[in-house]
């Protein structure tokens, strides 16, 4: 059994309450929820006819796109650091 303590954090995202269970700190979970809420509201303001499900999917697509860009940048920087060490 894991020694990692799980916490329960209740957050509000786009007018709905969710209880998030995980090992991250409450402040981290609240930050993530706030960023998701902000992105959903941003997308909704540009596309007010979207239903919540489509809005959530578009928010997820945006988040994964941003993640992949950052991951690629990190990999390129790590490769550059390795090249400079040699």
TrEMBL record:
It is found in: Cytoplasm. Keywords: Cell cycle, Cell division, Cytoplasm, Septation. The keyword Translocase does not apply. InterPro entries: Bac_CellDiv_Activator, Cell_div_ZapA-like, Cell_div_ZapA-like_sf. One of its GO terms (biological process) is cell division. Homodimer. Interacts with FtsZ. NCBIfam families: PRK14126.1. Activator of cell division through the inhibition of FtsZ GTPase activity, therefore promoting FtsZ assembly into bundles of protofilaments necessary for the formation of the division Z ring. It is recruited early at mid-cell but it is not essential for cell division. This is Cell division protein ZapA. It comes from Mesobacillus maritimus. The lineage of its organism: Bacteria, Bacillati, Bacillota, Bacilli, Bacillales. The gene is zapA.
């Amino acid at each position: 059994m894991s020694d990692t303590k799980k916490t329960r954090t209740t957050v509000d995202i786009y007018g709905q309450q969710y209880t998030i269970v995980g090992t991250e700190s409450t402040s981290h979970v609240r930050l993530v929820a706030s960023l998701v809420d902000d992105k959903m509201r941003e997308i909704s303001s540009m596309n007010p006819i979207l239903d919540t499900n489509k809005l959530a999917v578009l928010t997820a697509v945006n988040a994964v796109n941003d993640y992949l860009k950052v991951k690629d940048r990190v990999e390129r920087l790590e490769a550059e650091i390795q090249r400079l060490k040699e």
